[in-house]
Amino acid sequence: MKKKFWLLPLLACILMLTGCGKSVNDQSVLKNAKQSNTIVWGVKGDVKLFGLIDVRDGQQKGFDVDMAKHITKHILGPQGKAEFVTTTSQSRIPLLKNGNVDAVIATMSITPERKKIISFSKSYFDAGQSLLVPKNSSIKSTKDLNGKTVIGVVGANSVANIKKVAPKAKVIELQDYAQAMNALKSHQGDALTTDNGILFGLAVQNPGYEVRGGTFTVEPYGVAVNKGQTSFTEAVDKAVLEMQRNGEYNRLIKKWFGDVPGFKYKELYRR
After folding, report:
1. What is the pTM of this model?
2. pLDDT tens digits, residue range 49-64?
3. What range does the record give for the signal peptide (predicted)?
4. 168: closest CA among 189, 188, 147?
5. Which is nearest to 121 in space by CA: 218, 48, 230?
6. Which is nearest to 194 in space by CA: 267, 110, 89?
7. Which has the closest alpha carbon to 125: 215, 213, 3, 192?
8. H/E element holding 52?
9. What beta strand segments (E) does 96-195 contain?
10. Which single residue of 46, 175, 193, 204 has CA 20 to 30 Å from 155?
C-alpha cells in the first residue's frame, strides 16, 4: 500500500486556517486591530521630540506618538484608538517579539541585522547620527573622538558606528538617554552620540550643550512589526503615504521640529 504523502501539504494548509499558502500570522495583527478598534504601539518615554512622558499628565508626547495616532486613524478610521506602551532601545524588540505590542515606532533605524528577526515598514523619518557635547568642548566632529570617551545607549546601533569611525575612542553604554545625559553632565564622557533628532531634543532640555559633527551615518526610521505581518505592514505603508500626500506628515514635522534651534526641519519634508 502506497503511503499518501500528498495528504501532508493538504493537512498543513488546513492547520493554517487562513488558506493554503497564507499563514495565520499574515493576518492576525491587522484582523485583531480591526476587531478591537485598537492598535497597541511601543513608543519611547524618555526622548524629547519623539516620545517623552509629560510629567503633568503622564501622557507620551512627540513626533513618533503623533505618527502612531495618525497611522491608527488611517488604518482603523476616525474612531480608531492608539494605545501606548513605554519602551527603551533595549526592550523594544523583546516587547514586539513577545506580543506585548502590535508595532514599535520608537526612533528605530532600519538595519540588516534587525531585519533578520523583525520586519519594518518603509522609512517614515530620515535621521543621521551626530554628537552632543558641552558648548565649550574642543570636539567638532568624529575626527576629534580618538582618545576620548563617548557615551551611547544599550540597544542603539550608534555604539557600533562610533567604533567604526573612531576606533581609538572609549565607548560606554548606559540603559537610557536620561542616564546617558546625566553621565555627560557629570563628565563621565566627552560626548554623547545617537541620532541627530534625539540629540537636538536633549539640547533643547539642556541649554549648555549643542549638537555637532553634522550627520555621519544614514538612519532611516521604520515602524517595526513581527515577521509575517505582511498585511499590517502594507497598511502602515499606505497610511504614511497618505499622510505625506495630504500634508499631515509635513505639519507634524513643523509641529515638533520647527522651533528647534539649528534643526533644518524643512529638509525632512515629504510630498
Report:
1. 0.85
2. 999 999 999 999 999 9
3. 1-21
4. 147
5. 230
6. 89
7. 215
8. strand 51-53
9. 103-104, 119-120, 125-127, 129-134, 149-153, 170-174, 191-195
10. 204
